[in-house]
UniProtKB/TrEMBL annotation:
Localization terms from the record: Cytoplasm
GO CC aspect terms: cytoplasm
Organism domain of life: Bacteria
Native source organism of the sequence: Candidatus Uhrbacteria bacterium GW2011_GWE2_46_68
Cofactor section: Mg(2+)
Gene: pheS
Family the UniProt entry places it in: Belongs to the class-II aminoacyl-tRNA synthetase family. Phe-tRNA synthetase alpha subunit type 1 subfamily.
Name this protein carries in UniProt: Phenylalanine--tRNA ligase alpha subunit
GO biological process assignments: phenylalanyl-tRNA aminoacylation
Cofactor binding, note field: Binds 2 magnesium ions per tetramer.
First-listed, main subcellular location of the protein, grouped into a coarse class: cytoplasm
Subunit structure: Tetramer of two alpha and two beta subunits.
Length: 351
């Protein structure tokens, strides 16, 4: 009997020698220690022995079991060590190798400009509002002192929303239009009934136009300030502050008389040319100045349309194109404004 047990230990030793992984080890464990394994069947035979023999053989059987268990535990440790080693090999990193940089994106130049413009005006207390991008004729034209059929409307080359079956594009406040400027924010803001107003509305705008300096979809920012005692001096101060913050401290602005239906007096705002320093005789500018956009003192009829009393309050407004403003900052980098919307990464990556 003793010999049979010794043989069993030897057999197990041999079997373990061939083991290379966990699955093989498990198979050996089941074969020798399992419920129907080699050791269990030897134990069964013990029942046939006499009491005296049983005592001795039982002791040997237990020692054999312990020995086999120890051998298997050792083999398990060995396999675990080997697994750890191959994992470390697999995960080995050369910390001195040059890294692989992820392709990092950034905001579109127009989004960057919008953020910058918003920040500049926020510094002097302008609150960001968002007037609708599709609005009623009343807010876009009529309340801004442009009655139906007024020729001034032609300047805006507006897209009107078409009526379709079951879908009306006309209401109490006229037809629905894709806003051709951001000035619709003016009367909408006055209607909120809270003074003073110091707002900036930056939004998409649409006009039927496409050439190197125009896209059918573009962006404008509209400023509006209304309170008691607001004058042209305030307007000039704000525009000058904006020009110096956005373009640089040595830039100047000038107001040139102009005509808009919704402001009186009205101005075109020019900024001194950054390329020639305002001297003129330069490829970029006309006589030292670049045209930025429109501005003026809010017309009494517009104040009235917004429910305000022109005898008590006054205000100024300005509305400029974001694309145009960006082009003026970047100079010759953008010689055709339409490239901003071509999704050409070679261009976008320069910002
Ligand atoms: N809305 C005008 C345009 O798109 C620009 C403009 C001119 C806005 C004068 C104003 C303003 O607020 O006061 O051409």
């Amino acid at each position: 009997m003793q010999e049979t047990f010794t043989q069993l230990i030897e057999q197990c030793k041999d079997a373990l020698k061939a083991v290379r992984d966990r699955a093989a080890l498990e198979a050996v464990e089941i074969k020798f220690l399992g419920r129907k394994g080699e050791l269990a069947s030897l134990m069964k035979q013990l029942a046939t022995l006499s009491d005296e023999e049983k005592k001795i053989a039982g002791k040997v059987a237990n020692e054999t079991k312990e020995k086999i268990e120890q051998m298997i535990a050792k083999a398990k440790e060995k396999i675990a060590r080997e697994e750890e080693k191959t994992r470390a090999d697999r995960e080995w990193v050369d910390v001195t190798a040059p890294g692989v940089f992820p392709n990092e994106g950034h905001l579109h130049p127009i989004s960057q400009a919008i953020q910058e413009i918003t920040d500049v005006f926020a510094q002097i207390g302008f609150v960001s509002v968002r007037a609708p991008e599709i609005d009623w004729d009343w807010y876009v034209f009529e309340s801004l002192n442009m009655p139906p059929d007024h020729p001034a409307r032609d300047d805006w080359e507006t897209f009107f929303i078409a009526e379709t079956k079951g879908q009306k594009a006309r209401g109490e406040k006229g037809r629905l239009v894709l806003t051709p400027h951001t000035s619709n924010a003016q009367v909408r803001e006055m209607e909120k009934g809270k003074l003073p107003i110091r707002m900036i509305n930056i939004n998409r705008t649409y006009r039927r136009q496409s050439d190197p300096s125009h896209t059918p979809m573009f962006h404008q920012f509209e400023g509006l300030v209304i309170d008691e005692g607001i004058t042209i001096a305030h307007l000039k101060g704000v525009l000058d502050y904006f020009a110096k913050s956005f373009f640089g401290p040595d830039r100047q602005i000038r107001l040139r008389p102009h005509h808009f239906r919704f402001t009186e007096p009205s101005f075109e705002v020019d900024i001194s040319c950054g390329a020639c320093g305002g001297k003129g005789a330069c490829r970029i500018c006309k006589a030292g100045w670049l045209e930025l956009g429109g501005a003026g003192m809010v017309h009494p009829n517009v104040l009235k349309a917004g429910g305000l009393d022109p005898e008590k309050v006054s205000g100024f407004a300005f509305g400029w194109g974001v694309e145009r403003t960006l082009v003026m900052k970047e100079g010759t980098k953008i010689d055709d404004i339409r490239i901003l919307y071509k999704n050409d990464l070679r261009f976008i990556k320069q910002f």
